[in-house]
Amino acid sequence: MSFSQLKPAEFRLALILAAVVGTRMLGLFLVLPVFMLLVPGMPGYSPVLAGLALGIYGLTQAVLQQPFGWLSDRWGRRRVILLGLALFTAGSGVAATSETMMSLVVGRALQGCGAVAGVTLAFAADHTHPERQSTVMALIGMGIGAAFLISIMVSVPVASAIGLKGLFWVTGALGVIGMLLVINTPGGRPPPGDVVQEQSVPSGIGPLCVSVFLLHALMTCFFVVIPGLLLARHALELPQHWKIYVPTMLVSALLVFPLLRLIAARQREKESIAWAFAALSIPFALFSLQLPMFALVSAAMLYFLAFNVLEAMMPSMVSRLTRHGGRGRNMGVFTTFQFLGAFAGGVGGGWLLQSAGPEATMVYAALVCMAWAWVSRLLPRT
After folding, report:
1. Per-residue confidence (pLDDT) for residue 133, from 0 to 100
2. What is the predicted pLDDT for the residue at 2?
């Protein structure tokens, strides 16, 4: 995987799209580390409703991914991305002015209506040679990873200074920045002759859809439970949570690309999905125990490393399994499951937290990881 192999136009497009995706995902990620600790005072609060508010954007994202992908195959990628970012910005404004949990749920749902993740990936694939698509996808994945890392670094201090409402105003501003970037993006229409082709979804995408569903369900569940555990077990107040997140994310960011190069060189992507989910089960199991701080940091580091490997690897696998015609639709299928997972993780994590407690929730998450690691090893190679 070498960025020097990209043509200048491909590299420029990849950078712009990475920035677009990164600013939008930063707007979503900013609230994750602090949300469950900042909403208990809001009228109508309950852990279940808070989990719903945290994950509801995933449901509206999932519902609209395929319609947006279908529309982008006919209307053009750039127009659809602009529409989605406008909806995301409007939802941020609704969330910022919310006075009750239910109105906050509505704002988060409207944020999710900006369902352009699949369209953006299709946009990148349209204008990249097939042999270089994995490199472009990795660069866009770096934008998502950078957004995740930046959100972990700045979310706590920014939330401490301006509160949850202020965070939502920041997310709205990021949506506007994303729109300005898209306006200056070259291209935007699918390749000629491919616009109206209808193709079935390749069978190999199915396991990847399940994998991304589980990955994002577990990620949302992680942030439903972990902030409260840090406070309850280690008396780690919100302004100190960066001491856990930032070092672990930085180390994982340094390790993820050497791992991706090794996986690609050995052509072991399918097996790597199983091993990554097996690795994810370890930190979840450890989080259910009374860990000293150094063990907690090590577990978090393993979690973020496995997460980032899967997040960067799977979109390029989907791209290689599909053709140009209908790519927006097929990417939409993949990202539909991604955001359904975020919704399921928020609602399910909130319900388990309320009914079974944080330790049991982490045990269930570990069992899910191990089960899918075992099943995915048994699936035929595609």
Report:
1. 66
2. 52
Residues of the chain with pLDDT under 70: 1-6, 130-135, 137-138, 141-142, 145, 186-203, 319, 322-330, 332, 380-382
Q: What local confidence, expressed as pLDDT, does residue 186 receive? A: 64
Residue 302: both structure tokens together: 């393993």
Please give the pLDDT value at position 381.
59
**What CATH number does domain 9-378 carry, 1.10.3210.10, 3.20.20.70, 1.10.3720.10, 1.20.1250.20?**
1.20.1250.20
- Domain positions in the chain: 9-378
pLDDT at 189: 53
Q: Let me know: does 92 contact 171? Beta carbons within 8 Å.
A: yes
Contact 190, 328 (CB under 8 A): yes
- Which pLDDT value is given to residue 372? 96
Q: How many CB atoms lie within 10 A of CB 12?
A: 13
The set of long-range contacts for 280-283, using a CB threshold of 8 Å and a minimum separation of 24, is: 280/218, 280/306, 280/307, 280/369, 281/366, 281/367, 281/369, 281/370, 281/373, 282/366
- For residue 323, what pLDDT is reported? 56
pLDDT score of 118: 78
216: nearest Cα among 311, 126, 136 = 311
What is the model's pLDDT at position 215?
95
Report the alpha-carbon distance of residue 351 to residue 345 in Å, rounded. Answer: 10
Residue 29's contacts (CB-CB under 8 Å, 6 or more residues apart) are 147, 148, 151, 152, 155
In this prediction, residue 194 carries a pLDDT of 43
